[in-house]
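Whether sequence alone determines local backbone shape is best considered at the level of individual chains. When preparing material for the folding task, we compiled for one chain both its residues and its backbone structure tokens. No coordinates are needed to read the tokens, only the vocabulary itself. For completeness, the protein is quoted in full, as a sequence line and a line of structure tokens:
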Amino acid sequence: MNLPLAEKIADAVLYEGYILYPYRPSAVKNQQRWTFGGVYPRTYSEAQNGADAWFQVIECLAKGDAQSALDIKVRFLHLVQREVQVREGETFRVVESLRVGDKVFHTWQEAITRAVTFENIRIGEIAVEPKRFEFSFPAMDEVEKLSEDGVFVRTQQEICGGIELTAQQIGDALKLTIHVSNLTAYDATAEKTRDDAVKFSFASTHSILGIHGGEFISLMDPPEEYREPAKSCHNIGVYPILVGDQGERDLMLASPIILYDYPEIAPESAGDLFDGTEIDEILSLRILTLTDEEKQEARDSDERARAILDRTENLPPEVWARLHGAMRGLKPVSNNPVNDEPVNNDLVNLDGADAFDFSKWDISGADEEADRVRLERITIRGVEVKTGDQVRLQPKGGADAFDILLKGHIATIEAIEQDFESKIYLAVTVDDDPGKDFGRMRQAAHRFFFTTDEVEPVNQG
């Protein structure tokens, strides 16, 4: 049972969407948060006709017997409201930010990770009678004086919840049901907004299930004999998947985000970015383009945002190189598998022959040198230029987006090349491109080609 691996995936789920690029509270996309796995107070949910659920239902299948035992860990975020308040007469008014000396304080919402754990629950017992548990986490109210007229207030509402566990035999499978509910007292008689109710809610709620003396059955791809029982599992607000080491079946994650069995964190990733829909390299490069003012707002607002910025700005070259991509899992494939080894459908084989063994190909050398001749130097507009010199880009086309975006930018010549039709091109990297190092490594999207009449030497008189 590889619980650390499962929790690593669960952590990524827990903080998905916590704060999105550009990591500033003032950004529109960060105005409404906590969009995954919300479990709201029952009174609020019912007042909204169930639009925001007050419970989650996890149903999954397992193989085992009455002596098989379950470990259950329910995790979620408990929100902390952080307000900057300034004196206004006899009262205080909430403001977005307040500068005190060289430090700026922002109104914002943070979160604390909460976990409720139950271990060694015998399946035979919950098959006879459901087990019910209740839990609660206390309120918190802290006031910090910032100045004569300003205070920093942190508040956290008391929350309460319940968990019910049941088991049912379906053929030779066990159907397990876990019901997680929000039982927090909440006055929904007055008109309340989601922003108010979320303070009393469980955010990013998910559960990690472990089994001893048995194994879970995949709901995404159940064996043929369990397809009908799998159809009888009705999950509300979560999607149970197998997690842990590939092939093991003793751990399951009930995630509020749709994932496949055995998800992995890419080994190239340098750390959490809280935005799994983005490619790490692209998002990291975009972070570097933030202005100093934007970066400072992010750093002042949230410690997790500060960590992202600090880490990204200090990534070493070898980590940037890893972020550019990796090739995995390529191997010879036959249409006649031996010893029941499954065919790798990632490689399409149309003619019935064995697929190529890509390990025999040196793809690193597949660049433009195959059909171009390198030149040492060339004269442009009466000025001799060579590799390493700077030019100003003046694209002539006008139809390509890059013609517009790169016009007027300073670039460095990486190569001067002549094709078989004697046409000369300059291969350049753009000086203010955060990913120019990739261009120097001859990678696409950061290395551009221009003809000699589309550039001006920067030292031209």
About this structure: The mean pLDDT is 86.
